[in-house]
Design goal:
Keywords: Kinase, Leucine-rich repeat, Receptor, Repeat, Signal, Transferase. Residues 457-476 have a biased composition (Polar residues). 5% of the residues lie in helices and 36% in strands. It is mainly β. The chain folds into three domains: 13-190, Galactose-binding lectin (Jelly Rolls); 207-361, Galactose-binding lectin (Jelly Rolls); 368-447, Leucine-rich repeat, LRR (right-handed beta-alpha superhelix) (Alpha-Beta Horseshoe), CATH 3.80.10. Bound molecules: 2-acetamido-2-deoxy-beta-D-glucopyranose (7 copies).
Length: 476
C-alpha cells in the first residue's frame, strides 16, 4: 500500500490567553472524554475550569520531561519524549491508548511545544515526525516555524472509534533525527449531530481552519465552546462588525458557540465581499466546509449569493438574525481559496464564522482476533517492547517489533518473533487463535528446554507442519 500523501502539514499558531477566563456560573460541564497533560505526574486544573489528567495510565513508553521556561502555561511545561534509535530496520510508533465508546465520534487534538527539552542550552531543533490514529496515518508534525515564533502547535481531527479504545501515536518518519515528543492530548466526545454529514466509517477529518470572522483578540474555546473547539479570530481586510446576539446555537447541528455570531465580516454597501480563507495553500483534495451566518441587526433579513472559488456554494441565501449554517461535505479545493458573497438585497452580505476540514480515508486495521491474542501475549511478557501499543500491524511499516503482517484487505499476523522477550506462562491456547500465523521464533525455548511453562519447545513453529489447530478463518 502506498503511504498516503502528507495532506495536512498545516500548523496552527496559538498562544493560550494569559487572561484568566472567569469560570461562568452557567459553564457547560467539562467536555466528555480525556484531556491528558503529557509528561505530568499529577492532575492539573486550569483557570478555565478544565481538568487535565496525568498521563501514566494511558502510555507505557517514553519518559516524562519538565520544561522550566518563565511564563510557560502549565499544560505546556511538561511533555513526554520517546527515544529515536536510528538504524532500526523499521520506524516505530509510540501510542497513547484511551477508552472510547464503540462507534462514537471524537475530536482529537494534539499539542506540541518543543521547548528545547533535549538540548539544555535551548539551542535544539524540533524533531519532525508523524501522527497516527488507530493505524491510520494522520499528519506530519513539524513545529519548527511555530517554535521559532515562540508558540505551540496543535493539530485537530475528527475520528470515529472502531473499537472500545482509540490509539493516538507519534511515529518516526524519514525526517526524524531526534527524540519524538508530545505536550498534550485531548480526545473529546462529540454529540451525534456534530459534523454528521460525513461518513466516518470511511473518512476522518483534519482541521484546516476554524475562524470567527470580524473578531480580534483571543480565540473562543471552552467554556464558550462546550467541546473545547478553538475558534480563531479572522479579521482579514474587510469590515468587521460586532453586535450582541441572542442565538440559540442548539438549532445548528454542529453546535457552534453562540458567541461566534457576535462578530461578522460585512461588505460595503452594494458591493460584494471577497476574501481569502482559509489563509493556507491547500493540497488538491476534498474538503468539508461549513459557513455560519446571522444578521447582526435584530429583526432584519438580507439575501446574498455565496461562491467558493467562483463556484456557487449557495444561491439566494436568506439570512436573518436567527442565524443559519450552510455546509458541503465534500468540496474540491486546491491552492488558495476565495470566498465571495454577492448582494441580492439592499443590505450588504455578511459572514460570521467558518470551518474547513480536509477529508482522508480511514486505513484498515488488524483483525480483531489477532489483536486480542497479542494483548494476551503482551501480558505474559515481562518487558514488552516500547512500541507494543496501538494497532499491531498498521499503518504498514509501523507494525510492532517482532511482528510480521499480511498485506491486503484482511490484515493478519503471519509471523511472530519473540526471541529476546522474556516470556512467561503458557501461550498455546492464545497462539492457536492466531489462525494466520505461519511462523514463530522464541529463542527462550533454547534456554529452558525442560520447562513445561513454555509452550514452544521448537525454535520455530511452521504452521503448515504443526499440530496447532484452529485454521478456520471465521471472523470474530
Ligand atoms: C519543517 O518546517 C521548516 C520551517 O517551515 C522547514 O524549513 C523544514 O523544511 C520542514 N521540515 C520538513 C522535514 O518538512
Ligand atoms: C444530523 O443530525 C441532525 C440533528 O440530530 C438530524 O436532523 C440530521 O438528519 C442528521 N443528518 C444525518 C446525515 O445524519
Ligand atoms: C435571550 O433570549 C432568552 C429567551 O428568549 C431570554 O430569556 C434572554 O433574556 C435573552 N437574553 C438576552 C441577552 O437578550
Ligand atoms: C507487504 O508489502 C510490502 C511492500 O509492498 C512487502 O515489503 C512485504 O513483504 C509484504 N508483506 C507480506 C507479508 O507479504
Ligand atoms: C482496506 O481494504 C480494502 C479491501 O481490500 C481496500 O479496498 C481498501 O483500499 C483498504 N483501505 C486502505 C486505506 O488501504
Ligand atoms: C528475531 O529477532 C531477533 C532480535 O530480536 C533477531 O536477531 C532475529 O534475527 C529475528 N529472527 C527472525 C527469524 O526474524
Ligand atoms: C513452512 O512450510 C512450508 C511448507 O512446507 C514451506 O514452503 C515454508 O518455506 C515454511 N516456512 C518457513 C518459514 O519455514
Amino acid at each position: 500500500m502506498k503511504r498516503p500523501p502528507p495532506l495536512f502539514l498545516l500548523r496552527f499558531l496559538f498562544l493560550w490567553p494569559l487572561l484568566v477566563v472567569p469560570a461562568l456560573s452557567q459553564s457547560p460541564p467539562q467536555p466528555k472524554g480525556f484531556l491528558v497533560n503529557c509528561g505530568s505526574t499529577d492532575d492539573l486544573f486550569t483557570p478555565d475550569g478544565l481538568r487535565w489528567l496525568a498521563d501514566s495510565s494511558f502510555v507505557s513508553a517514553g519518559s516524562p520531561r519538565k520544561l522550566s521556561l518563565p511564563g510557560l502555561l502549565p499544560v505546556l511545561s511538561t511533555l513526554r519524549s520517546f527515544p529515536v534509535r536510528p538504524g532500526l530496520p523499521q520506524p516505530r510508533k509510540f501510542c497513547y491508548v484511551l477508552r472510547a465508546g464503540r462507534g462514537a465520534r471524537y475530536l482529537i487534538r494534539t499539542t506540541y511545544f518543543y521547548g528545547s527539552f533535549d538540548s539544555p542550552g535551548g539551542s535544539g531543533t524540533p524533531p519532525v515526525f508523524d501522527q497516527i490514529v488507530d493505524g491510520t496515518f494522520w499528519t506530519t508534525v513539524n513545529t519548527t516555524a511555530d517554535y521559532a515564533a515562540g508558540v505551540a502547535s496543535y493539530y485537530e481531527g475528527v475520528f470515529r472509534a472502531k473499537g472500545m479504545t482509540m490509539s493516538v501515536c507519534v511515529a518516526e518518519n524519514t525526517y526524524t533525527t531526534s527524540d519524538l515528543f508530545i505536550s498534550a492530548l485531548e480526545m473529546i466526545l462529540l454529540e451525534d449531530s456534530v459534523y454528521n454529514g460525513t461518513n466516518f466509517d470511511e473518512y476522518a477529518m483534519g482541521l484546516i481552519a476554524r475562524s470567527t470572522f470580524g473578531s480580534i483578540g483571543s480565540s473562543l474555546r471552552y467554556p464558550d465552546d462546550r467541546f473545547n473547539r478553538y475558534w480563531q479570530p479572522f479579521s482579514g481586510s474587510a469590515h468587521a462588525m460586532t453586535s450582541t446576539h441572542n442565538i440559540s446555537s442548539s438549532d445548528f447541528w454542529n453546535l457552534p458557540p453562540a458567541m461566534i455570531f457576535n462578530t461578522a465580516l460585512v461588505a460595503d454597501k452594494a458591493k460584494p465581499l471577497v476574501f481569502q480563507w482559509p489563509p493556507n495553500l491547500l493540497p488538491s483534495s476534498s474538503y468539508y466546509i461549513a459557513l455560519y451566518f446571522a444578521d447582526t441587526l435584530p429583526g432584519s433579513t438580507r439575501t446574498f449569493n455565496v461562491y467558493v472559488n467562483d463556484y456557487s456554494f449557495q444561491a439566494d441565501l436568506t439570512v436573518t438574525s436567527a442565524g443559519l449554517v450552510v455546509f458541503a461535505t465534500q468540496w474540491f479545493l486546491s491552492g488558495l481559496t476565495t470566498i465571495t458573497l454577492t448582494p441580492g438585497s439592499p443590505l450588504p452580505p455578511l459572514i460570521s464564522a467558518g470551518e474547513v476540514f480536509g477529508l482522508f480515508s480511514i486505513g484498515n486495521v488488524t483483525h480483531t482476533r489477532d489483536i486480542i491474542a497479542l494483548e494476551k501475549i503482551k501480558k505474559n511478557i515481562a518487558n514488552p517492547p516500547s512500541d507494543w501499543s496501538g494497532d499491531p500491524c498498521m499503518p504498514e511499516q509501523y507494525s510492532w517489533t517482532g511482528i510480521t503482517c499480511s498485506n491486503g484487505s484482511k490484515i493478519r499476523v503471519v509471523a511472530l518473533n519473540l526471541s529476546s522477550m522474556s516470556l512467561s506462562g503458557s501461550l498455546s491456547p492464545v497462539i492457536a487463535r492466531m489462525t494466520a500465523l505461519t511462523y514463530m521464533t522464541n529463542s527462550r525455548s533454547k534456554q529452558i528446554k525442560e520447562s513445561s511453562e513454555i509452550a514452544f519447545t521448537e525454535q520455530s513453529v511452521n504452521r503448515s507442519h504443526s499440530s496447532i489447530t484452529g485454521k478456520s478463518e471465521s471472523a470474530t
